[in-house]
Amino acid sequence: MTTFELRSQMNQLFEPAGSVFRCDEIRYPAVSGQSSAGTPDRSLNGSPCSSSATLFEEGEELARKLKDNQLSEALVQETMSGVRSRHILAPQPIKAEFNLNAAAFIPSASTIRLLESGSAPPTGVTQTWQDILRLGTRITDRPFRLRLARQLSDMGPWTFDTLCDLAQHFYWAIADKVNIMNLGPEAGLFAVEVRDALKAHDSVWESEWDSSCFIFHLQKYALEHFKSYWCSLDNPHAISLQNRPDAKRWKSALDLSGFIADMFSFGLIKPPTIHECLGILLHEMVSVEHVRAVQTMVKRAGPLLWQTADSHERYHEFTTRFLERTSLLPDNANLTGREESVQKVIRADDIIWLIGEWHAQRSECPSPVVKSIWV
């Protein structure tokens, strides 16, 4: 018997009938079960190699049955290696195991809100500069905020339009915060840190264009966003007796007022902006909410507003107007349904005394003639 004929007989014994060498038509035998020791049962139902012996032992037995002395040991090894490459490498199905006593999976509230919104879940901690900004305005840890500010500034190159968007998103981040707790100075501090990071990035090009453009837009949008909450001129959505805010809008308005005052305190916003904001609140004052907004801005803006060259006139003008406007308010004037006494709120913070203390600490300098700004 020739070597070719021996190979043909061996292939016929090991190859299923009708088999073709096409991967998409290969049928893998299913695992019948597992032994008592936990290892898979190697018997294959319907397989042409269904024997408890290994394929190598089957090959030796078949070789003996052929009784052909011309078949050398090298040929047997060659044939068996070919058989192993075609059968042993076939993937075996994996039996899935389920724990019927496992605790039920209950998604977190944040996961439910994310799924309800239809947004894809984030693949990392932060994805865009908008994500970094929203996080940075709420972080109290300064080293972490500084890392976020540097990461945000490195996401340039920044253009006039993108810096405009960056400034706008600071105000939107405050309005869209997820809770109704009062916002601290973190947002203002992060704005300073972003400005400094942009300035450090500018130093590579020996320019301060990015940081200056960012500050320009911060100042520009401060009044625009403030008026959207507090100024009733051509604005039917302003907080007023006719348009009472819900709890979230009221807190957003208060946080925005505090944020603008913080930016003045940190040197990002100039005095005329804070002057106009206080003037709007004095003019629109109809409730204890307006009183609280004035108190918040005065306290968070700090002493600088009352220690400038024209601070003597500003001090007397503001205190006079504040006392006049608050004296006309009913003691229970509120827009959010909270039981608050206007006079108790005024006495609790006593900003008139606080401004007087700051004003008394100013440096002596001649007082220029200034135009009234709070009439």
Account of the 3D structure:
With about 375 residues, the chain is mostly helical. It has 15 helices and no strands. The chain starts with a helix and ends in a 15-residue tail after the last helix. The relative contact order is 0.06. About 25% of the residues have low confidence.
Structural class: mainly alpha
Task: Determine the strand fraction and express it as a percent band.
Answer: under 5%
What is the N-to-C order of secondary-structure elements (H for helix, E for strand)?
HHHHHHHHHHHHHHH
Count of individual helical segments: 15
**Main beta-sheet annotation:** none
Task: Return Rg in Å.
Answer: 39 Å
Mean pLDDT: 74
Q: Which assembly state applies to the chains in this document? A: single chain
Q: What distance separates the N and C termini?
A: 119 Å
- Runs with pLDDT <50, length 5+? 13-56, 66-100, 110-126
